[in-house]
């Protein structure tokens, strides 16, 4: 079929015949004035089997080459079993960023293990993103718009900023996969933030050499219960604060000096055994009634402590961290322990297992049947000894001795 030429298109007149344009079903229909017309593609829908006419724009606004290219693309869709009119209709209904985010959220939340992660995912976008670009359609968003959203939190709350950026990138990747955008603007957003220092991705952590003095100055205060006790237990066990705050007495075996955290409460969804040092056992023995199902470190109202309770404690103590201008976090003490372990000769495997991190790939884990528990027990006792070392300025009330002969300084 011979393609229409620009001269033929320019010569079209009102009331004249439609001009075949060189693609099956494509014609230039005459308009109301000389030299004007409308491009129409006639085809049989592969979905319904009915004849349909698809407009491809007005001439001369839509030129010959553009009309032919659009018609060829539509013909490819038809050959693939897609009705190009319906496909175009779907693309014309481009969602706003908020609408796209909520659709993506409906998909990803099925993979989360608890309600907290579900609400956090959408909550960070509701707080930091939707007020600025929530009503903007995704195809109108560019790297600059996302950089403007991220810049105010890039340094003040860097961990949150990183997560917000990841979630925005996930939403835009979803939009890309659905044909609403042709690229992901988050791929180059970092370039626009280049003038800003790179945010710290880790939780602010206290240098390990200062942990002992912090414990003595800020945690060894009567009564050693509630948030203070929970934070001290976090430090002694190198556990996540959420695992400690939700710990119940049936998980504790004081005789065996063992805390067994069930898989359902672990980030890796695997049961974790925690060896308890003498100081950790002493701390547990001070926590009052020990009934199955009861929280080990309840709040004053008997409920689970909030993460903010530990944060407030650290802020009041002005707990020093490795991030200038920010106090140490409860989670950061895991980094403190990890650095201590590395600087004191403990290998990566044993230290990572103490932190309940997943070691190696799936195949490697399938062949490993040990959690290095006995070696970890010695390491955690040495960590505890370090935390309570140099007690010359502390006068203990209770001079009882732990099972290994070391004196308890919790009283």
UniProtKB/TrEMBL annotation:
Start and end residues of each Tyr recombinase domain: 201-380
Pfam families cross-referenced by the UniProt entry: Arm-DNA-bind_3, Phage_int_M, Phage_integrase
PROSITE patterns: TYR_RECOMBINASE (PS51898)
InterPro entries on file: DNA_brk_join_enz (IPR011010), Integrase-like_cat_sf (IPR013762), Integrase_catalytic (IPR002104), Integrase_DNA-bd_sf (IPR038488), Integrase_DNA_bind_dom (IPR025166), Integrase_recombinase_N (IPR010998), Phage_int_M (IPR053876), Phage_Integrase (IPR050808)
Gene3D superfamilies cross-referenced by the UniProt entry: 1.10.150.130, Integrase, DNA-binding domain (3.30.160.390), Intergrase catalytic core (1.10.443.10)
Keyword DNA-binding: yes
Assigned keywords, A-Z: DNA integration, DNA recombination, DNA-binding
Similarity section: Belongs to the 'phage' integrase family.
Protein name (database record): Integrase
